Amino acid sequence: MSKNRTTLKDIALELGTTITTVSKALKNYPDISKETKKAVIKMAKKMNYEPDMRAVALKKGKSNIIGVIIPEVVHFFFSNVLEGIIKNAEEKGYKIIITTSHNISKQEKKHVRFLFNKKVDGIIVSLANETKSVKHFDILKEYDIPIVMFDKVSDTFQCNKVNIDDKSSAYKATEHLIKKGCKKIAHIRGPKHPLNSIARFEGYRSALEDNDIALNPNMVMECKDVTLKEGYDFTLELLNSDDKPDGIFAVTDQIGVGAIQAAQSLGIKIPEELKIIGFSDSQVAQIIRPSLTTIHQPNYEIGETAIRMLIEEIELREAHGDSDIDFRQIILDTYLIEREST
Amino acid sequence: MSKNRTTLKDIALELGTTITTVSKALKNYPDISKETKKAVIKMAKKMNYEPDMRAVALKKGKSNIIGVIIPEVVHFFFSNVLEGIIKNAEEKGYKIIITTSHNISKQEKKHVRFLFNKKVDGIIVSLANETKSVKHFDILKEYDIPIVMFDKVSDTFQCNKVNIDDKSSAYKATEHLIKKGCKKIAHIRGPKHPLNSIARFEGYRSALEDNDIALNPNMVMECKDVTLKEGYDFTLELLNSDDKPDGIFAVTDQIGVGAIQAAQSLGIKIPEELKIIGFSDSQVAQIIRPSLTTIHQPNYEIGETAIRMLIEEIELREAHGDSDIDFRQIILDTYLIEREST
DNA sequence: CTGAAAGCGCTTACAG
DNA sequence: CTGAAAGCGCTTACAG
């Protein structure tokens, strides 16, 4: 037996009163008598009433839904950020619609469009590796839909942003290798476009420079998909060249793990002959032997901060209309964790 | 300058026609002239029109949103399932709202309620470890909202289900240890309630029985949160007892990894003195040394299957009203991957 | 304290 | 071929 979901009308009919009264009673308006409220609440419970949020959303012009666009879900960093987003959103009565770009710009565009017509209250995004132009986000600005970018942000787009200081973190990582005695330091870097892979490269370059080590372009490898396999293959290539590195700064832990496995396959001793440092502090960094020195970044807090900023902006706009917002960029701290690989 | 989002009315006004005509033109109704259609489509584009899905949903009684309730996002198995769900949902024009129970029944109840009043078209769920009664799902049945359960399912609740054969997989795992010569096999099992941890225990028990090995209750440890640390601690306890196991069947890879680390901390050789097998085939199983023998389960396919069944049911009900549905339980195959730990 | 009415943005049966 | 009207389920300013 299928029932239709109870509406205000059903309750009003049952009680011989009107929709208006029922609606007000349920929302505890002061101008409704206690008896009426009691009766309405009782009947609502009995009839399993739950407000139709679509109707509420339509009426109020608010959906309490936030859209998230990230490259991947099966990913140590992003799943942790997502966790931070979801938990804090739920606490404040917002729900999350999640979409994944798989680092493809076209997908990202589609999702922006979709979330736009789903009338989400705001959007959190980490750009696809492939994305260069962020024109497809302009429509959100035009219609005053708040956006927060994290991790892979745009430098030109005006909005709230959360990330870490990739350059100084990469500097720290490279400097660590230098302090440990490395002279020939390779960098397996991220793809061309994302600002954070550029910043990490800059940190690497800058640390070499400050320590009077010439940058050898043959020692910089550029990943496409940033997979363990790429880390493995690039490391083999580096270690089979005439000019072997004695240190590798890997742009992520996955790359670092691939590097360790490649070195081991050639019988090269870590950290004696080769030192390796990763980035992210994911679980594999602790579990691999030798364990991987890495840069810890506050994943959960990045998600938490992003959702907080977004909800603040949403509620600020609700209160003051489209008053001008001062956008901020919040930079969270990282630290180096030394393990066996250096 | 904030704009209000364009509505049908805006377009009609601009064109000096009516909402009806604009709506029909955009949906390519046959009874609208070509010229009108052309003009409407052009104007819609110019004005950045996107239909308000809330209104469409309200009118049509459909939201094209599917709710997902899972214990965790930061979790190898669940993030992979989620990936399978999201990708296949997007292809069919559905979006996912994701909520996490953190294995707490109360949270799960709250989410069911929330998703119900969000009027999602259907729900996919893997039960919280804590959940015994599934009464809180009854409301979905009452109102004909399709549900698919996966992994941690209920045996009493009538709905479509997707999982693996946990019992026979566990049997396979235990039998593998026996074939490798283990005589004293411990099992670090999952929590009390979830059917799949019970089934895995049953598989273990049954394999021992078939091989004339008496089950020693002291060799069965029960996890609460199924964390690496629990695996570590229980393994220390087992290995420090008078009656040491020579094999451990761990209910997940995380437990298996903890077991390996605990054994190593005591200087016990794997696999010579102790053999360990996990369950899931997550990345850590490949990366730890010795690498972990495990049961591979098709994570992505579980998600894919769940969302397919759900969408099928949604569309079936749309077409035929609440005709009776034949619920199915789809069992996906697992296989054993032998690595260094056995 | 209660209720009639307008309206959020759409869809669609019906009339012309 | 075009359009007026009802209605999806709510909220809320207004009248009584």
Describe this structure in words.
The structure is a homodimer of 342-residue chains. With 342 residues, the first copy, chain A, is of the alpha/beta class. Chain A has three domains: 8-51, 434 Repressor (Amino-terminal Domain); 63-163 and 300-332, Response regulator (Rossmann fold), CATH 3.40.50.2300; 166-296, Rossmann fold (3-Layer(aba) Sandwich), CATH 3.40.50.2300. In chain A, 45% of the residues lie in helices and 15% in strands. A six-stranded parallel beta sheet of chain A has the order 2-1-3-4-5-11, sandwiched between helices. Chain A has a four-stranded parallel beta sheet with strand order 7-6-8-9, with helices on both faces. In chain A, strand 6, helix 9 (195-210) and strand 7 (220-222) form a beta-alpha-beta unit. In chain A, helix 5 runs parallel beside helix 13 (299-320), helix 8 packs parallel to helix 9 and helix 10 (228-240) packs across helix 11. The first copy, chain A, starts with 7 loop residues before the first helix and ends in a 5-residue tail after the last strand. The model of chain A has no long low-confidence stretch (mean pLDDT 92). Chains A and B meet through helix 4, helix 5, strand 2, helix 6 and helix 12 of A and helix 4, helix 5, strand 2, helix 6 and helix 12 of B. Chain A binds a DNA duplex (16 and 16 nucleotides) through residues 7-9, 17-21, 23-24, 27, 29, 31-33, 36, 51-52, 54-61.
